[in-house]
Amino acid sequence: MPFKELLVVSGKGGTGKTTLAGALVEIYRRSNHGVIAVDADVDAANLALILNTESVDDENEFIGGERALVDEQNCTGCGECLKHCRFEALISVNGVVEVDEIACVGCRVCRQVCPAGAIEMRPNIAGRWFCAVGDGYELVHAELGIAQSNSGKLVARVRREARRRAEEADTPLIVIDGPPGIGCPVHAAMAGVDLVLAVTEPSPSGLHDLQRLLETARHFSRPVAVILNKAGLGYGGGRELEALIEEHQAPLLARLPFDRAVPAALARGEGLSAVPGFVERVAALRLAVDELLA
Q1: Lowest CB count within 10 Å: 180, 257, 267, 292, which one?
Q2: 140 within 8 A of 158, measured Cβ to Cβ
Q3: Average pLDDT over residues 160-175
Q4: CATH number of the domain that 202 lies in?
Q5: Are residues 86 and 153 in the same domain?
Q6: Among 125, 147, 172, which residue terminates a domain?
Q7: Which range marks the domain in which residue 94 is found?
Q8: Per-residue pLDDT tens over the stretch 176-186
Q9: Is the Cβ–Cβ distance between 145 and 43 less than 8 Å?
């Protein structure tokens, strides 16, 4: 049976994207509907916290590009590499060249110009990705290293692993907790998914970010639906939000009210299922999602 991919995104952090993604995984799990969760926010992965996933059964290095390595025994200190490095990633210490690994981008120019052949390139470990098995679900997530790039490639890597596992286990659904914003990681998370759930809030930034998300989904020709979170905290722009949604012909699947019990539950390490009234709302949302994915 072919699997479906559901992507939950928001224009910024704090909108409730991860909370909602975790709630959807939880309700599919409770109904014995096979599901694989993916945390594609590789810069700040926290879906495992909401799902209370503690054990990791698979850990892997993510190789992102290369970094220069200077052989101190062969380095003559001639300074040719220093002259040609555009990124100021090389420094001379007591006549020997050293590499600033954060500044180095792996362009290989230093290796090309070194007359002594004292510089080689080595794979750069830019992060790690993990797989965990929870109660009725699997979770694939990752952590990008400090000051590392290639976040889009790491997102693509965890998605490939989730797809592989879905095919092997005949799992019908992959729920992806996407990165915030509309940049490269979002592009890697959105390409090829079956449905995009855009989570927004009634605020000026919510309106602005929703517009960018809807335009991004249109660019990738992905079907999109909207969830209005924290309804009732409006700044008076509710009509503008609804006009924008109507303009993009995106169905509004749910209005989730603001409730102080939600952040209190999250602080206790619990999800929406612990808040009275939200189980029913998420169950109704799940039915709407299933209809769009059918």
Answers
A1: 267
A2: yes
A3: 95
A4: 3.40.50.300
A5: no
A6: 125
A7: 65-125
A8: 999 988 999 99
A9: no
